[in-house]
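Q: Could you predict the 3D structure of Germination protein, Ger(X)C family?
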Amino acid sequence: MMREARWAPRRAVVIVKVVLSAFLLPGCYDIREVDDMNLVLALGIDETRDHHVSVTAEFVNPASTPSSSDGGSSSSGSRQPVIVRQETGISIEDAIGKFEREIPHSVYLAQNMLVLFGETYARNGIDRALDYFERDRAFRRNQLFLVTPDSVTDVLSASVDPEPLNALGIRELVEQSSTELRFVQSEQQHVMEEYLSPSQAPVMALIGLNQSGHPVLQGVAIFRADHMVDTLSVDEMQGLGWLLGRTRQVALRMPCTGAGDGTGTTIRILGSKTRFYARPDRGNLSVHLHVDARAEIEQLCPHEKLDDVKLKQLNIMASSEIERSMRNALLKLQEDDVDVCQFGKRIFLQSPDYWRKVSPTWLSSFPKISVECRANVQIVRANLSLNTPESTVSRSGKTTAEVAQ
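A: Sure. Here are the predicted structure tokens for Germination protein, Ger(X)C family:
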């Protein structure tokens, strides 16, 4: 009896610990089978003529799941790997709610890869959409925000061969371009950071359909706060890249003198760094941008010889090309009154007190800023393949032995 009396409190303590541990264990009360979910890969948002919101969703077709073994084709043969459906409502929430009511199985949004805004919707303001995607916990912050001048439904229904899934193919297109210009990778987290920054000028990749009906990157859409104001072409994107200082592996192509056959010199920028200086002077603000870049020669014009003189000329030509590209991009941004080059953010980081003085009138002051653009390109790796013994022989007409002597 005494022994049982001693063990009774210990048993009680053990029982209490087991009960408390049971409450702390994670459970699967909301578990759902994959077959009972509609996996959403992409969402398209546009505005209708009666000012309602049209939402296009790209779902994975469970009856036709592509695999690497069959090259993306399905076991059912004629079935498409994705299903594209469209709903209209007074808001994004209302339209997505209709998917839940009208399509079998629940809608699963956590795997969404991209959100494609129609140009009409983007120009009228995307503040409600940004608020929705930030509040809804079902979405991940690494989904891409894109804009299209074409029909949202047409873009999400277009073929992106050899990728069987449309959304995955479009995302790959954007990620490929982001290896050169990082700002093209317009993920939700990055867009929101630019939207809430002092400049309030986010950038989104612009996706359109080419003549063959395939999605391609056509540039970037630039925003003033939540309203789209203009677009930059693929060539103009390079200038914005130099202004922002986020470039790598960018190719500069310059035509040959007196040649109209399309040949030219190609110089690849391996990496660059843009230094920003803001100098207030009697109420006027002047900005100095200096780009330091390392480059290599990919292609020379025919019949040109690479020597010290030519190398200096190529350095000057590449520097001038970068300066020209920066000035053209900046001129367009100042005409649009949109600080996509993030001058406001840089001034805030460099001089917070001065930014507090100019921030109330920044939108009207930005187009009047005097900006000086300078670039310094240093070509490296010039002798890897251009001055080999074989190339020297072919240019001089001498034998290898004569060159060695």
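Q: Anything worth pointing out?
A: The longest helix spans residues 308-335.
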